[in-house]
Design goal:
Rossmann fold; alpha/beta; 16% strand; two-stranded antiparallel sheet; 11 helices; 7-stranded mixed beta sheet
Amino acid sequence: MIRKFKSIPDEQTPRRLNIGCGRRYHREWMNLDLEANDPSVIRHDVTRGIPFAEEQFNAVYHSHVLEHLKPEQGRQLIAECFRVLRPNGVLRIVVPDLERIAWLYLETHQQAWTGDEASSVDYNWMKLELLDQLVREKSGGRMGKYMADREIRNSEFVHSRVGVEYSVCQEQVISEDRKRSLTERVSESTFGFRRRMARRFVRWIMGRHAESAFDEGLFRSQGEVHRWMYDRFSLRDLCQNAGFVNFRVCHADESSIEGFEAFELDAVDGLVRKPDSIFVECVKPMADCLAKTA
């Protein structure tokens, strides 16, 4: 059963919803995430649906959320976006672009095969970009380790692919504890204690192999792993099957959402935050409203 919040009063703003906002949110939006990093963020698991009544929003946005859901959960999320949007409302989706990743993988593979040394280095990265977040067993995976290497040989190429994430990994010398709030550290400590107790119980009952499987399963359930990948064709199919129309591929700083560029969710000062992404939009048709009154 999906728990729905009450309808938002007509005079109340915002009428824009940011799902899975992380630390990238704006106070003129309604913001949802698994963890609330700010009082303006509502803590909620979207696999349980979107906790608002029908036709509440003029725009719904989610960036790098869909790929972390199983395909059936992804279809449910898009259906929920359709439900909470008003007729003529805009859905904006940002995900890693499987088409571009695959194209670069094949291009660098071909050039590396012919003996081009620089391409062979880029090929190693593209193979990680294609596979690592699907199979990793620890936070950051091989991509994080690659980007944190001070001797990285193709820094410009990697930066062009992942943007600010590269800079973050290069700055890992800064203590993570110093960057986390006291509340976050206490919460993490409590969770860590519970996890240690659970691991000991699993090892006692089933042995060390089961303990290792427990660790991997717990990590893979926490939202970092990619559970599916999308390109423009599969995204269009997904959105059209949910009832959306006018599907189109956009630039990071281009949107049908009024004033979107000013919110700096996808681009800051002209720089794309996640260059490995595809940006798409579609619209809930007015016909849906007409059908209800027919």
